[in-house]
Amino acid sequence: MTTASSSNIEIRSLFKVFGDDPVSVMPYVREGIDKQDLLENHGHVLGLRDINLSVDPGSIQVVMGLSGCGKSTLVRHINRLIEPTGGTVLVDGQDVLTLDHGQLQQLRRYKASMVFQSFALFPHRTVLENVRYGVVMQGVARAECNSRAERWIERVGLSGYAGSYPHQLSGGMQQRVGLARALATEAEILLMDEAFSALDPLIRADMQSLLLALQRELHRTILFVTHDLEEAITLGDRIAILRDGEVVQNGDSQEIVLQPTDSYISNFTRNINRGRVIRVGSIMEPTPTKAPGSGDYRIPSDMLLEDALPRVVASSNNSAAVVDVKGTIVGSISVGRMVYALAADRSAGIA
Length: 351
Known about the structure:
This protein is of the alpha/beta class. It is built from 14 helices and 14 strands.
C-alpha cells in the first residue's frame, strides 16, 4: 500500500565548482567572484554557490532558471550523481555526502527515484520490464514486481502497452513509462530533471495534470527541475529561481509574481498570465469584519483572478467580501484592485 511521504530535504551551504582543482579556487568563490571571471582567470566553472534550501515532506519544490544556471546540477546532488565541492545535503536528517557505496545504493533504490528528460528507458526491454526494473533491484519477489509494475502502468494511462517496446511509443508515452518506473519503487522522494521539457505542449500539459493528480493522492516529496515559469507555477508549492549557480528567490507562486526580488525575477514573470496565477486572497484588503460596501456577495480567497473578476464585475457595486474555507469573511476586493493587480508594474505594490 502506498503511503504519504515523510521525507524532508535540507541543503546547507552547497557549493559545486567544476575543474581540475576546485578546492584551490574556493576562496575566490566564497568571496563572490564572478562566474565568467572564475572561468577566464582561473580555468574553473562555477556550478553552485552557497545554496540553502529546505523542502517540506510531501511538497513539490520546483527549481528553475535559464540554461546553465545550475538547476540540474543542484537536483543531482540529492542522490549524489554529482559530488559537491562543499556543503551538506540532509535527507531525513542524514547527510547524504557521508554515505558509503552500499548506503548510497540503498538511498537510490529505496528512498529517491529519478525521472530524466531523455526518458532513459532500456530499449531492449518491454514497458513492463522497464517499469519493474527498480523493484527488481530492491530484491522484491518476481510476482510482486510484476503486480506492482502492472498497477503503475495502469495508473499512468498505459493499460495494454505492457508488452510494447520504447521505440513503439510516443514521447509522452515513454515519459509515462519513466514516471511509472520511478513510482513503482515506492520511494518517498521523486527527483524530476526537466522531465516534461522534451514533450509537445499538449502532451506536456497532460503530464503535468497526471503528476498533480497522483501527488494529491501520494504526497511525495518532489524536486522538479524546469526552465519554464508557467510549468513551475502549475506544479510548484514553492519555486526556487537560480541565476549563475545562486538562488535569487525562493517562494510560492504569489510571492514570485507579486513580490519579485529584482529585475531578473521580474523579467521571468513579465509575460505570465497573471489572472491564472494570482489568487484573490493575495491582493485583498484585509478586514476583521464584513467589508463596507461589499454587500452580501462573497468569493473564496483561493479563487484565481481570472475566475473572480467577472463575478465581481457583475456584483451590484463592483466589490465583494472575501471568505476563507470556513466561510468567514477575511477581507474585501474591488474591481479596481483586481485590475491593478493584473496590469501593475511588477516592482510596484498593490494600491
